[in-house]
Amino acid sequence: MTKRISVALLFLFLTTTSFAQNNYAKLDSLFALLESNNKFMGSVAISEGGKILYSKSVGVTDMYTRKRATVATKYRIGSISKMFTSAMIFKAVEEKKITLDQTIEAYFPSVPNAKKITISNLLNHRSGIYNITNSGDYWTYYTQPKTEAEMVAIIAKNKSDFEPDSKADYSNSNYILLSYILEKVYKKTYGEILTEKITKPLNLKNTYLGNRISLGKNECYSFSYKEEWVTEKETDPSIPIGAGAIVSNPTDLAIFIENLFAGKIISKKSLDQMTTIKDNYGMGIFQLPFDKRKGFGHTGGIDGFSSSLGYFPDSNVSVALTSNGNNFDNNQIMIALLSTYYAIPFEMPSFKTVALTEEELDKYLGNYASEELAMTIKVTRKADKLFAQATGQDEFPLDATKADTFEFLAAGIKIKFALADKQMTLLQGGKSYLFRKI
């Protein structure tokens, strides 16, 4: 649901090749290391052609019973829900209930530019509709049930960010509206449509529209790490619906995406439209590069849950991750899973840090600006720890790993200072950005 630069989860390009055997034991060691350092709780799976090659679950489902997670544990998958919603929209198109080029004024006349916005624009984030999760108001009501009328009113009160189809920008509002369109054309609830069109035909027994979290259904709570794991509040599912409220697990997600690309859910024509990338967006799907291969998938985040799902057609392989506690970079975990499948070496993380005095840390304080990213990062200190805060985003802690080098592992961020030159370099996602002190 939420979208922030610091938690963007995209696969990295790798160029190393190897002829080593798949080392699944190394993955076991990785997850043992992550869990023992309070870096990750969740489940993962690697699947090839419908056969699970590797699965692993670590962590607990709640902080009271401390029941261990298993392959049967279910997680909220956040924005991976959009892939399901998109597939159901294409089903509705194939059943001639709607068309991609029809505008939405008949459904939502109060939404700005409704007469210009098409269903296609909603699917590939080209509507210009303001993303409600970007508003500070969102965090005042996100745990409370909302009706369709209330949600449409919240979406409609904001002005358009841009003229429809003139550009693309991610907006959860698009998929909330698509969920309501599905309910209107099928005259059923979103959950009923999901069951009828996807989960029942594919026998996905662990996938459904979420409700209040129920441990009795093998669901789990989510957590954030603040010196210890702390239980997060629950977003009420009536708010995100098909933008982020589906519950699933890695095994079901692998079955879903493999069947999607096998033509078992929508036609090849529809899949081709869904996977056509324009300005970095497909229709409920992203392109995910790894090594020299091109994959497709989506990521998700809601409350303390995070998830990633990718499929690589040339190998008929899928990788899925669902997490209910994350203090590391999911992207690095996905790289480890894919590297293992393709027998490419990957480096185990090191969680060693160095202790610096308050006087030593004060040398790094200040505001740093970048022409490349058009943003400023403010570096501050609280007691014996540095924090960084980018323009318009939450602050995040920085751990010193060696002299002049700090990391925020949850987002895969590394910052290297060059004090003599009054600058710092931010590294994330295989890219580097230069910032100068101002």
UniProtKB/TrEMBL annotation:
Residues of the signal peptide: 1-20
GO molecular function, one term: hydrolase activity
SUPFAM superfamilies with a match to the protein in the record: beta-lactamase/transpeptidase-like
Keyword annotations: Hydrolase, Signal
Pfam name, any one: Beta-lactamase
InterPro entries: AmpC-like, Beta-lactam-related, Beta-lactam/transpept-like, Peptidase_S12_Pab87-rel_C
Domain of life: Bacteria
Peptidase S12 Pab87-related C-terminal domain segment(s): 355-423
Keyword Hydrolase included in the entry's annotation: yes
Cytoplasm among keywords: no
Residue ranges of every copy of the Beta-lactamase-related domain listed in the record: 43-328
Protein's name according to its UniProt entry: Serine hydrolase
Source organism: Flavobacterium rivulicola
Origin organism lineage: Bacteria, Pseudomonadati, Bacteroidota, Flavobacteriia, Flavobacteriales
